[in-house]
Amino acid sequence: MGRYRMGKSDNPVGVFDSGIGGLTVVKELLRVLPQERFIYFGDTARVPYGNKSKETIIRFTLENILFLLKQDVKLVVIACNTSSSIALPLIKQYFRIPILGVVIPAVKESVYATRNKRIGIIGTRATIESGTYEREIHRLDPEIKVFAKSCPLFVPLIEEGWLEGNVVEKVVRDYLAPLKEKEIDTLILACTHYPLLKKMIKKFMGKEILLIDSAREVAIEAKELLNQESLLYAGKRRASALACYVTDKSDIFQEIGSRFLGRRLENIHEIKD
Asked: What is the DSSP letter of 271?
């Protein structure tokens, strides 16, 4: 469909996730693009997406993108591994506005970084079962061996604030022991919640293991894309750099989201049907 002029440079960047985890992506976007405005949409009433059907995930993803388009965003970032893995490959062709997911940036970095061509992936069941990461890795380098593991208990532990301690250490060990045995040298954190467990994951896997955080890679790619399209905002950061919209319980979103963002969340709006 060719190049598309996304809009004015002072338009915001739109980001969405099924819930709160995508704020780790926003945190990196704010660091890499401090002059930009961001609109974050958290579909907190319908979280999690990881246990939904493919058809439902696609429908939710479409609805979320349409919401952001109504806010006149110049770029959409899907900060949800489930939507990025299952819906994005199918729906991207139907939108003129550029849409970035979290899969491709992480895949590119992992393929570039691995030394022994043995890469591990951890994520939700839906993300792992989709096989998207493996397909994209093998598309870039068919010789790489990929080992994937779903870690369904990580998200509830993180949202409860359990980031350290014996219980977390045991869960991390039980999930990641099979990957450690495969002698991987690179591990993709294929869930936006997982960066909060980096310390414990690194402790078990060893310092020599490289952890690929898709949030950082997406932020870098977003900056490159905006620069290519001459859409980087040249002014200083506005007072309201981040506006958040949620579909349920904004008070809970603020409490947990502030932990994910690393600072107190303000300017939160709850959407009512």
From this structure: -
